[in-house]
Amino acid sequence: MGKPKTIIEKIWDRHVVHQEPNKPDLIYIDLQLVHEVTSPQAFEGLRMKGRSVRRPDRTFATMDHNVPTIARHIINDPVSKKQMETLKENCKEFNVPLADIDHPDQGIVHVIGPELGLTQPGKTIVCGDSHTSTHGAFGALAFGIGTSEVEHVLATQTLWQAPPKTMNVQVTGKLSPAVTAKDLILAIIAKFGVRFGTGYVIEYTGEAIRNLSMEERMTVCNMSIEAGARAGLISPDQTTFDYLENRRHVPKGEAFDKVVKDWSSLATDDGAHYDATVEIDADEVEPQVTWGTNPSMCIPVSGQIPAPESAKSEAAKEEIERALEYMGLEANQPISSVNIDHVFIGSCTNSRISDLRRAAKVVEGKTVHSAVHAMVVPGSQTVKLAAEAEGLDKIFTAAGFEWREAGCSMCLAMNDDIVPPGERCASTSNRNFEGRQGNGARTHLVSPEMAAAAAVEGRFVDVRNYLATPV
Amino acid sequence: MEPIRKHSGLVYPINRSNIDTDQIIPKQFLKRIERQGFGQFLFYNWRFDNEGNKRKDFSLNDAKYDGASILVAGENFGCGSSREHAPWALQDFGFKVIIASSFADIFYNNCVKNGILPVQLSEQQTKELVEKSEGKSYTLSVDLEKQIVFDSEGFKADFELKNYLREMLLNGWDEIAVTLTHEDRIDAYEKANA
Ligand code: SF4
């Protein structure tokens, strides 16, 4: 046997098309996912040079960022409308399959890829979207690219990329009940910062990761970019194969057995070397709430908002001061004393069926606080239908939640779902940047359970006690 | 893409870390289907108040910085969303060189692909440049062939740039055309992996 390799190196080696000295490698891209916001200029670029899409069969498009989540066909903003129409025309002209707004497969690009079985172990996957790292949950090398690169992949099905450095994020121990994959990834970013992954592809390993379901793994990998890493992945195992079996684009029968054999060989070899390793103990992770304007500004729900004086450097101190001012919070305030105005359950981080099930369990039989506007936006039409078949929509609407159509919605507020200036939102999405959910909006990132409990109480509560207390 | 070899210009400093692409260009301006015209939306929520008036307390609105073409910022510049609208907005506004103590990966690549030169200097060096340019009209020069940044007062710093990216910027290459010279390799790869 040769030198032990990480899954990252194995996937890389399989995809090198061309190498020459002093240049990055030219690597083959197995799948490109496309959405309406980052693609128009790429298609326009092809048109201007008279180029075509090399492999429409390895390209898949959907509409998610701009789509209305109520009154599906009333798109108030003419520029949004134009962008969606442009995607439709581009897909038609270049023969790219599209799940448009009326299509039963429509949904957030990172939700539908796995759902349809397009996402598979060992693939190289790109999309003009930074949360493409989500697909790494399957043991794929998946990363976000800019629009120029979208055009490059459309034209050539390849990209010039330097081999990445590898990092092992080892998660030992077990997550406690009601502590979720979302809390884990937030705790990782809080511990190591928003830059620790820059230049690396992360592999998440360890007992706590192995015990996660596929949907939980997607939540973890999704937020790799918030740690600066372009990609994060998890070696495939039986959990991965079970999820993929019988999905539409996955081989069936004997062909499936064969492909599973190949996928199994991708997992990182014992003794493989990583360029860096960090460790975190899952036993110590509590439910998390972000208090500031980047995802590392995050504390356990039992914690207090930090004081600027606690910062290690002058720059960090100023950052905390600015974040407190933007967020309208006081130093040393317990996070559980913060009242909220909105709850958003959705986004490619936490809008899958298991997320909705867990949130529904928290709100079942309860009522949304009178001061709170709450909504659930399923990640895809498929998730929506599945949730309705189980009656989850009824649980949410009976509690006072709005039940919406699939899309990105309030994760980035590009459609009409906007948090007004100065108002506060408990959100299951992935970014709490200034203005992300609307100009002046204040975002707190949490798990679906925590968001659901916050909706009922009007403030942040420890969902662990909450679930334990009979009402 | 316009080649870039040497550039001298007015410096605009923005002394913050972790400036994300949501700040560089807020999402409400990502809906256009063209590449041009994004400069008017650069740092929109910082430059303009809710009524769309220029904020006096945001330094880019200061006439002193009119025509600035070199931006200096703190660490992790361009983190967050992969939107190429961020470099498009910076470029359309007139910035040709971005100096920071570190950059987010995707943003860094996106700059080069659009002919913007990203220059990574040490924290100490960026701090010095911020001090030199804050509230003042300060001109800096960049020579990409020599890979140096310098001013007329004796400041001089080397910077690294991958060979390939340097060539691309110096020559203003169309990367797709370069790749298509290897089309036979791509065909062969597809055949072998069909
Ligand atoms: S849900 Fe949010 S993070 Fe995910 S793709 Fe949509 S906008 Fe991006």
UniProtKB/TrEMBL annotation, chain A:
Q: How is the cofactor bound?
A: Binds 1 [4Fe-4S] cluster per subunit.
Where on this chain does [4Fe-4S] cluster bind? C348, C408, C411
Q: Which reaction does it catalyse?
A: (2R,3S)-3-isopropylmalate = (2S)-2-isopropylmalate; citrate = D-threo-isocitrate
Q: Which GO terms describe its molecular function?
A: 3-isopropylmalate dehydratase activity; 4 iron, 4 sulfur cluster binding; aconitate hydratase activity; metal ion binding
Q: Which UniProt keywords apply?
A: 4Fe-4S, Amino-acid biosynthesis, Branched-chain amino acid biosynthesis, Iron, Iron-sulfur, Leucine biosynthesis, Lyase, Metal-binding
Q: Does the keyword Amino-acid biosynthesis apply?
A: yes
Top EC class, one word? lyase
Q: Name one GO biological process term.
A: L-leucine biosynthetic process
Domain Aconitase/3-isopropylmalate dehydratase large subunit alpha/beta/alpha: start-end pairs: 9-458
Q: How does it assemble?
A: Heterodimer of LeuC and LeuD.
Q: What does this protein do?
A: Catalyzes the isomerization between 2-isopropylmalate and 3-isopropylmalate, via the formation of 2-isopropylmaleate.
Protein name as annotated: 3-isopropylmalate dehydratase large subunit
Automatic annotation (TrEMBL), chain B:
State the reactions this protein catalyses.
(2R,3S)-3-isopropylmalate = (2S)-2-isopropylmalate
Keywords assigned by UniProt, alphabetized = Amino-acid biosynthesis, Branched-chain amino acid biosynthesis, Leucine biosynthesis, Lyase
Question: SUPFAM superfamilies recorded for this chain?
Answer: LeuD/IlvD-like (SSF52016)
Q: In which pathway does it act?
A: Amino-acid biosynthesis; L-leucine biosynthesis; L-leucine from 3-methyl-2-oxobutanoate: step 2/4
Pfam families attached here?
Answer: Aconitase_C
> What PANTHER family does UniProt report for this protein, alphabetically?
3-ISOPROPYLMALATE DEHYDRATASE SMALL SUBUNIT (PTHR43345:SF5), 3-ISOPROPYLMALATE DEHYDRATASE SMALL SUBUNIT 2-RELATED-RELATED (PTHR43345)
What does the annotation say about its assembly with partners? Heterodimer of LeuC and LeuD.
What's this protein's family per the entry?
Belongs to the LeuD family. LeuD type 1 subfamily.
Name of the protein described by the UniProt record? 3-isopropylmalate dehydratase small subunit
Organism source for this protein? Salipaludibacillus keqinensis
